[in-house]
Amino acid sequence: MPDKDFMKKYIVCEKKAVIQAGTVVMLNDVQAAVRKMNLISLKKGRYEVLRPIEFKRGEVVGFEKEIKDKGLLITLEPFIEKADNDAGNSGSVPSSALSA
User: Within a 10 A sphere around the Cβ of 76, how many other Cβ atoms?
Assistant: First the structure.
């Protein structure tokens, strides 16, 4: 069973991704601030979506549960954070960039 604090991160790979009400997401402070009227703050950067919210290509969003919405899933790719010692670079990349 996964840790209760576990969130799987995804990066938006299409023009936009729409997340529906009832979904629990992990957002950074900037992402939450611009969507604050559509969110309920839970704890530690976790928010419940009250009304559909949109994210643009390149934004990273954490999800508390498995994504079952196929329309949303096709707009996202798993997000893998690179280790600091990986070729001397730190940062993150979409998983598709690792297989290229």
Answer: 22
Q: Which residues pair with 16 in a beta bridge?
A: 56
pLDDT digits (tens, 9 = 90+) for 37-90: 999 999 889 999 999 999 999 999 999 889 999 999 999 999 988 765 555 444
Give per-residue pLDDT as tens, 15-50.
Answer: 999 999 999 999 999 999 999 999 999 988 999 999
Q: Where are the domains of the chain?
A: 8-98
Residue linked to tokens 């979409």: 94
Distances (CA, A) of 16 to 2, 19, 66, 75: 29, 10, 19, 7
